[in-house]
Amino acid sequence: MISMALIAAVVNGICIWLLGRLEDPDVNVRAANTFSLNDFISNGGILVAGGLVWLLGSNWPDLVVGIAVAGVAAWGGIEILRDAHGEHHKAVHQDDGKT
Questions:
Q1: Closest CA to 22 of 8, 36, 10, 9
Q2: CB within 8 Å of 51: residues ≥ 6 apart
Q3: Using only C-alpha atoms, what is the Rg of the chain?
């Protein structure tokens, strides 16, 4: 599992780098970047938890990292919803001159 998390972290790092190079990304690209960043953080958490479980012989690090990863995913989802709402607001109110 640790080896797959390491491979996935490298792949997600490359995705973040490629998406970051795009000029003027739309809401979909920004959401994809958020997903990739969340996955990258999750992969790092898996690596840390795996090392701590192996070192300590306890499952507690896995639980703590799992809760932290859930928090990161929730935060990313909220950011994506806010971004999408802002884009929707700009699109709807752009033509009426009342923004």
A1: 36
A2: 2
A3: 18
C-alpha triplet 80, 86, 92: angle, nearest 5° = 135
Secondary structure element (H or E) that encloses residue 30, with its range? helix 27-56
Would you give per-residue pLDDT tens digits along the chain (99 residues)?
788 999 999 999 999 999 999 999 999 999 999 999 999 999 999 999 999 999 999 999 999 999 999 999 999 999 999 999 999 988 888 755 555
Please answer whether residues 47 and 2 qualify as being in contact, where contact means their C-beta atoms are separated by less than 8 angstroms: yes
The encoded tokens of residue 26 equal: 């739309």
Contact (Cβ atoms closer than 8 angstroms) between residue 49 and residue 61: yes
